Each structure stands twice: as C-alpha cells, then as structure tokens.
UniProtKB/TrEMBL annotation, chain A:
GO molecular function, one term: ATP binding
Descriptive protein name: Sugar ABC transporter ATP-binding protein
Domain ABC transporter: 12-244, 250-498
SMART domains: AAA
Segment forming the signal sequence: none
SUPFAM superfamilies, sorted: P-loop containing nucleoside triphosphate hydrolases
This protein's UniProt keywords: ATP-binding, Cell membrane, Membrane, Nucleotide-binding, Repeat, Sugar transport, Translocase, Transport
From TrEMBL, chain B:
Domain of life where this protein originates: Bacteria
Organism the protein comes from: Paracoccus onchidii
InterPro entries reported for this sequence: ABC_transp_permease (IPR001851)
Segments crossing the lipid bilayer: 14-33, 40-60, 66-84, 96-120, 152-179, 209-227, 233-254, 266-285, 291-308
Record's keyword terms, sorted: Cell membrane, Membrane, Transmembrane, Transmembrane helix
Membrane topology, record value: Multi-pass membrane protein
CDD domains per the UniProt record, alphabetical: TM_PBP1_transp_AraH_like (cd06579)
Protein's recorded name: ABC transporter permease
Subcellular location: Cell membrane
C-alpha cells in the first residue's frame, strides 16, 4: 500500500512555502509531497510553525512566498471548498445550539437561498455519519454530545468538503482511549478512499500508529522529513528540540530551606491529586502539553477555579483561596492571556501598574485627594523594568506585546510578593523582552521569592528553572532537577500515553 | 496652549458643541443670555443632572440602569406621602434616599450576585417602580408636601437655583469619589475589563452591587429634588427622563462599554441638552420637531466623541 502510494503523482506538493508576520518569519522554505492514501505527521514544539503551515494549506492564510500544487496545478492561495481541502482545528468550532446535521452542512446548505432543504441536509449528514461508523443522530443538538463525538462531527463536516486533503490538528486531545481507537479506524478507511491526511500531534505513539511519513518543524524551519519507518522516536524528538538547548543558561542561586508554597492533594475536574512544593528562592517549572491542566491548576491555587485540597503559603494554610486572599499573603498570579485576563487596555499604564495595590496610595486627607505616590511608583516600575512607553498616561493597549507583558509583571511586582505563579510569562513577546523577563524572574528568586512557571516553551524552562515537574492529563508524572534536565525525556514524558510514574 | 485646548477637547468632546449652540441661540434670541432664562434653564435640569451622575457610574462599570427614571418617580411619591403625613422635610429626604437605595439594592443583588443581565433586570425594576409610583399616588400628584420645600425650590443664590446647587454638589462629590478613592478606581477597572479585574483581586460582584446601590440612591435624591422643583410629587415625573439621562451621559462622552468617561463629561452633556432644549423653546420650535433635532444631535455628539477619543496617544 505504502509503496504503491509513492509511485502515483502527489495530490499535494508544497514548494518553498514561507510565511512572515510583520517582518518576522514564522515558517521558512517548507517543501514536501503528499500522495493519495498517505498520512503525514507534522510535528514540532509549540510555536514551531505547525499551525501557520496548517492555515496556509487550508487557505486561511496567504503564503508570503512559495507555491502550493494540487494535482499538478499551482495556486498562490488555496480555496478550501473548491480545492477539496479541509482542516479540523484543535479548538472545536461547532455551533453548540444547532443540530448535528445543521452544523455539518453549514458551509453549503442544500436547497435554494430562500428555502433550505433540511431533509437533504439531514440525508447528507446521515450518510457521512454512517460512513464514519459512529452512532450519532444527525437530529440532536451538538451541545448534548460529548467532546469525543463532537470531534467526529467535526471530521464528518470537514469530509463533506475534503475529497483530496484532510488536516487534523491534535484530534485526540479530547478523546477517550476507545474513541481514539475508533478515530484511527476511520483514518484507515479514509486512506483506502485515497484521501491524503496531514496529522498534527504531540503524541508519538499516535504518530507511529497512524502515519506513514513525517515533517519536523523547528522555529519555522523544516529540520527533517522522510518515511516514519526509517526514523526512530528518539531521533524525531531530537530533531524537534534541536541543539539550541543548554546554551546561555541563566546563573541561578540556591533555593532556601523555607517553603514558599505547598500544594497537597489538590483535585478538580481538570486535575487529580496534585502535590508539590516550592521553596523560597526556587524557580519551579511546570511542563506539559496544551490541555494537560496546567493553567487550571495555577488558577485553582488562586481560587479562580473550584478545587479541593490544601494550599499552604509560607506557614499558613489558605482555607478559601481567592486572588485577594492570596495577595494579602504576598502571593500573586500572572495569567497567560494578558489581553483577556490581565490588562485594562483602554486605561493608562499608570492605572494598570497600580491596579493590584491601589489601596496603598489612597490618602485620607481631603486637601490632597487622589493617589499619593502613584505616579512616582509607576514611573519607577517603568524605569526598573525597562518598559518602552512614551508616557505613563498612554493607554496600555497602544504598547507592544513585550511591553504589555512587562506592565502586567510590574503590576504584581509592585505588591512585593513572596510567591509568584506565572502562566506562559513570555508568550508572544519578542526576544529582547523575553530576555528582560527571564532576568527579572531570576532576580526575584535571588531575593528569596518562590516562583512557579507554567510554560509550553521547554527551552525557556530548561534555561530558567531549578526544577521541572511534568504534567500530563491532569497528573504530575515526573520531576527533574536542574542537573538532570533532559529535553527529550521531558517531551516524551509529557506526550507519552503510558502509566504515570511516581513523582 | 494648543495642547491644552486639544486635551480639553479630547476629554470633553461635547464642549465645542455647547459653545456653538450658545453662540447660535444668543444670536437668534435676545432672551437667551438673560439671567432669568439661564436660571430657569439650570433649575429645569437639576433632576436630570443628579440622575445622570448615577447613570455615569453605572456606565463606567460597564452596566446600564434603565430603572433610574421611574425610581425618581417612586421615591418622589413615597417621600411626598410621608411628608404630607409628617410635614417633616428631614424624614422626607431619608425616605426618598431609602426608597432609591432599596431599588438599587434589588438591581445590585440581581445583577451582581445572581448574574442577571443589567438591561433586562433594570427594565423589570423600572416597571415595578413605575407601578408603585402610580398605585401609591392613585395616579395623581401627591399634595400636602411642606411649603418650605417649595420655597427651597424657588430659592436661588447668585442667580443659581438652590436645586442646581445641590446637583453641582453631587457632581463635585461624585467626581472626587471617582478620581480619589479606591472604589472609584476599581469601578473604572471593572468597567474596562471585568475578567482582568477578577484576576487582579477586585471583588467584581461587590463592585457591581455597590454601583447599582449608588445609582439608586442618586435616583432617590433626584426624586426628592423633583418635589422641590415642581411643588408636588408627580407619579409620572421620571417617565420621560430616561432618554434625557442616557443621552446626556453619552453626549458628554462616557462610553456605554465601560471604563471610559468621567463625571465632568456628564455635566457638559447635561448642559448641552439643557441649552438645546431651552434654545429651541425660545425659538418657538414645536415639541415634536425638537425631538428630531435632539436625535440628530445624539448621532453627531457620539460620532464626535468616538472620533476624538480614537485620536488618543
């Protein structure tokens, strides 16, 4: 099967594909062939350019350079419906209040514009679902289906459009083991139909189970490609991580004896029985894949999500955690999505910097009503953190990503915390700001602050952390000290489907 | 110099409109700039000014209080009935504030604690308050309120009506609260980004509760002032005021999306509508024609506000 597939001409050929965002190359010079009945794995770390590649091939993004050939015909930009290409994206994108049939035919409703032929839509959906072999009633509302069945509906919807290439982005993260096997069986049938599939996944077992060939991306560059049968799992992981790791490590000081944070038996819907400690002056990295429950864990510690278990800050157990209660004990949380959960975009930099500690500046005197010392404090933070802003009265929304992140960081540093939990502290910031933020974090640790750092950027954790714990599917599955950091082992632990090891 | 002018324009986009209207009406009507007319113009808008300050707080926090208009009516009627029985102005003030606070607390509980949407919730309390005002007054003006209160309604100092002085005092106090207390700052932050406020440790629900409480209180005060202005407690006094109140706040340049605006802008916005309505009356423009002009002005004003605030930074 595999051998015959390579002899026919490719269904999709990509030559020198590149994408640049605001002068910054995200994908460079990508080239590969995809034959009918072939499943190609597209692998790489978070931020390696997989999503951008996917979006160029399914027509969401226009490539900056390079060409895409479909059955020998060259196109500058793909028109997904005309070219028979469809992608199932990682985030489910179904309309929860519509039925399965309505969702599946939403891109191309049968009938005339004034009168939709719902019976036909129903029939089309039923045929497709029958082929997929899942017992899903096209008449039910999508919201009543579990995540696994919704994923199948997504695939069914994509297949109505895709008769050449189907792209699956992390299709198994929300599936149970049984549902996953069913999905793999479906993929086998689609291969027999002559469809070409691009399979994006972090899970190596899955890749070896379903894929024939691979392309490895690192920092937007194609660092490896070939037949999967000829590449070992170790070599693939080494290609993903590259040799850049281990260079330019930060100098860290030893942590103190005193504990800054102790988490015992923390449980919620997203994670189970999580235990860990952070010493004063220690930087603890939490590694894991998207959806492993890391953000949920961090938010639960601060009472932003419900959870049961014990959270101890310093010596004191926090009975009812909340951001305000943690703040009073000198603990703070810097969230991942700064635009959604962090910053007050239309308010000035000054107000954003003082937001967590405004009470400190209130004066009781009527003569000088206002916030005494707020301007001075804001100016000092801007100075200390090296924030590039014309004036502290400028709206935060006008700053660059890196400077916005520094403002968010500065706000919490102004509370003089003893414990900081960061969620993706350098996501979407430029190299210079990243460097500044890493230095700030290591200085905090030197001053005896306990630091927890959730990050999907493994080199970042390897560079800045004293210790890394690995989280997978809601459980802590491993721990590494700085002298035994091993990128390949951490990745394989985070992505393996095996039994969790003891911590 | 140019900078100061530009900054004033940015923070108070309605100022040039007010200035233009004053010039036009002064030219068209010899009565416009007389002391008597100015006094009448101010007195007629004290109630709207006080209520608009309450609405400004709610807007800044990202909500809306549609009930404020009929809370004015309900608190006027109940306060009027109490004063007719006791002839005591202090008890009357306390009653009006208590009624306003009660409605505000109901709004605050439903929106802040139960998570209902502000629009629907306050529409409900608007109807309830209106119903109460008409049921308790049996649909007619409540008579027998103290004469001293009517005297207060007619009093003026240096050509400024006493009721307007109360309104201006509310403006000053509200402005200081907004700009000088942590409550005011946190209110602004909740309106700017509710999620971020939660992640910053601000008690968003308590904030929402308190802002509707304040809005209710100011509605109660406005209701009491309406008795001084009109001499009676009228059950329908607030019915027509809602669009005036919202219009004044929006024209002043406070955003309905929250986190952008100020009390001083609302003062200008009330002034703008006051000048417009007074001027059109002086020119003998019929009431319904005035509505068309008011509507067009709201488009122009909000468009200008949007243009000017976009040219920030």
């Amino acid at each position: 099967m595999k051998d015959t597939a390579t002899k026919v001409s490719p269904i999709l050929s990509v030559r020198g594909l590149s994408k640049t965002f605001a002068g910054k190359p995200v994908v460079r010079n990508l080239s590969f062939d995809l034959h009918p009945g072939q499943v190609m794995a597209l692998v790489g770390e978070n931020g390696a350019g997989k999503s951008t590649t996917k979006n160029m091939i399914c027509g969401l993004l226009e490539p900056t350079d390079g060409e895409i050939q479909l059955d020998g015909e060259t196109f500058a930009r793909v028109d997904p419906s005309a070219h028979g290409i469809a992608a199932v994206h990682q985030e489910l994108s179904l309309f929860q209040t519509l039925t399965v049939a309505e969702n599946m035919s939403i891109h191309h409703l049968p009938g005339s514009p004034v009168r939709v032929d719902w019976a036909a839509a129903d029939r089309i959906a039923r045929e497709q679902l029958d082929f997929l072999g899942m017992g899903i009633d096209p008449q039910v509302e999508v919201a009543t289906l579990g995540a696994g069945k919704q994923q199948i509906v997504e695939i069914g919807k994509a297949l109505l459009q895709a008769n050449r290439v189907l792209i699956l982005d992390e299709p198994t993260t929300s599936l149970t083991a049984i549902e996953r096997e069913k999905l793999f069986a479906i993929l086998d049938r689609l291969k027999e139909r002559g469809l070409a599939i691009i399979f994006i996944s972090h899970f190596m077992e899955e890749i070896y189970r379903v894929c024939d060939s691979y392309v490895v991306l690192r920092d937007g560059e194609q660092v490896g490609a070939g037949k999967l049968a000829e590449a070992s799992r170790k070599s693939l992981e080494a290609m993903m991580v590259g040799r850049s790791i281990g260079e330019a490590r930060l100098e860290l000081t030893d942590p103190q004896e005193r504990l800054a944070l102790r988490v015992e038996g923390l449980c919620s819907a997203d994670f189970h029985n999580v235990n860990f400690t952070v010493a004063a002056g220690e930087i603890l990295g939490i590694a894991g894949l998207m959806g492993a429950g890391r953000t949920e864990l961090a938010e639960a510690i601060f009472g932003l999500r419900p959870a049961t278990g014990k959270v101890v800050v310093g010596e004191e157990e926090i009975r009812a955690p909340s951001v305000a209660a943690m703040k009073r004990r000198g603990a703070c949380y810097v969230p991942e999505d700064r635009r959604l959960n962090g910053l007050f975009l239309n308010r000035p930099v000054r107000e954003n910097l003082s937001a967590a500690a405004i009470g400190r500046f209130v004066t009781r005197k009527l003569r000088s009503i206002g916030f005494r010392g707020e301007v001075k404090s804001a100016a000092k933070i801007v100075d200390d953190m090296n924030i590039a802003v014309p004036h502290i009265e400028n709206a935060v929304g006008d700053l660059s990503g890196g400077n916005q992140q520094k403002v968010l960081l500065g706000r919490w540093l102004a509370t003089r915390p003893r414990l900081i939990v960061f969620d993706e502290p350098t996501k979407g910031v430029d190299i210079g700001a990243k460097f500044d933020i890493h230095n700030t974090i290591s200085e905090l640790a030197r001053d005896g602050v306990g630091v927890v750092m959730v990050s999907s950027d493994l080199p970042e954790l390897l560079n800045t952390a004293h210790r890394i714990v690995v989280m997978r599917k809601g459980r802590l599955v491993g721990q590494f000290h700085r002298d035994e950091f091993d990128a390949a082992r951490i990745i394989s632990l985070a992505a393996s489907a095996g039994k969790p090891a003891d911590v | 110099m140019l900078n100061i002018v530009l900054r004033t324009l940015r923070t108070n986009p309605a100022v040039p409109l007010v200035a233009a209207l004053v010039v036009v009406f002064s030219l068209l009507s010899p009565f416009f700039m007389t002391g008597g007319n100015i006094e009448a113009m101010m007195g007629a808008n004290a109630v709207v000014l006080i209520a608009a300050v309450g609405m400004t707080f709610v807007f800044l926090a990202g909500g809306i209080d549609l009930s404020i208009s009929t809370v004015i009516s309900a608190s006027a009627v109940i306060s009027g009935l109490v004063m007719a029985g006791t002839d005591n102005i202090a008890v009357g003030i306390a009653t009006a504030l208590a009624v306003g606070a009660a409605f505000g607390a109901v709004n605050g509980l439903l929106i802040g604690m139960c998570g209902l949407t502000p629009f629907i919730t306050t529409m409900g309390t608007q109807l309830v308050a209106r119903g109460i005002a008409f049921v308790m007054s049996q649909g007619v003006a409540v008579k027998g309120t103290p004469y001293a209160l009517m005297d207060f309604g007619f009093a003026a100092f240096l050509g400024i009506p006493a009721t307007t002085i109360v309104g201006l005092a509310v403006v000053v106090l509200a402005s200081l609260t907004l700009c000088g207390t942590s409550w005011g700052r946190e209110l602004m932050l909740v309106g700017s980004n509710r999620n971020a406020a939660r992640y910053t440790g601000i008690n968003v629900r308590k904030m929402e509760f308190s802002v509707y409480l304040v809005s209710g209180l100011l509605g109660g005060l406005a209701g009491f002032i309406s008795i001084a202005n009109l001499g009676n407690a009228i059950p329908g006094v607030g019915d027509t005021l809602l669009l005036m109140i919202i219009g004044a706040v929006v024209l002043g340049g406070t955003s309905m999306n929250g986190g952008e605006g100020s009390i001083s802008r609302t003062l200008i916005g009330v002034g703008l509508l006051a000048v417009l309505i007074n001027g059109l009356n002086l020119l003998g423009i019929p009431f319904y024609d005035q509505l068309i002009v008011q509507g067009v002005l709201i488009f122009v004003g909000t468009w200008m506000a949007a243009r000017l605030s976009r040219r920030r930074a």
